[in-house]
Amino acid sequence: MMIGKKIQIQKIEDYRGNLSVIEKEILPFEFKRVYYLYDVPAGAERGGHAHIEQKEFLVALSGSFEVVLNNVKEQETVVLNKPFEGVLIDKGIWRELKNFSSGAVCLVIASDVFKEEDYIRDFDDYKNYLRSFNGKL
């Protein structure tokens, strides 16, 4: 079973350069926030949290990085390295972003605006949160 779902983004090829578009039909949620990570120092990690309600879609616009997804029962690593492919992360999934290549840019499309109360930032708290639902979100 996959924790994250890879989604292909339409790639329109042109001799002048390729174009990919993310519109509301591509993602299974209405997005309210778009942000991107860049200039991540060698060896640094991002993420290290889960969201209670928010869903996210991550794309490597440039370079590559790994997305480690964990739901306590299983863990998977998704390598993102194509600007026309991303990974959908549902609510309640722990994520860590690692091994950023030089010049990597990570685009994040989120289902909601920033709300600190939606974050679970400690893995033990995350495990306790899941136990309160008997592992079912």
Offer a few descriptive terms.
137 residues, mainly beta, five-stranded antiparallel sheet, 1 helix, 7% helix, globular
Give a brief description.
The protein has about 140 residues and is mainly beta.
Description:
Helices cover 7% and strands 42% of the residues. The chain is built from 1 helix and 12 strands; from the N terminus they run ββββββββββββα. The chain has one helix at residues 123-131; strands at 5-8, 11-12, 19-20, 33-38, 46-51, 56-62, 65-70, 75-80, 85-89, 94-98, 105-110, 119-120. The longest helix is centred in the C-terminal third of the chain and has 9 residues, at 123-131. The mean pLDDT is 94.
The profile of the biggest β sheet is: 5 strands, antiparallel
Q: What characteristic shape results from the CA principal axes? A: globular
- Beta-strand portion reads 35-45%
Strand order of the largest sheet: 1-9-6-11-4
Mean of residue pLDDT values:
94
Model regions low in confidence, pLDDT < 50 over at least 5 residues = none
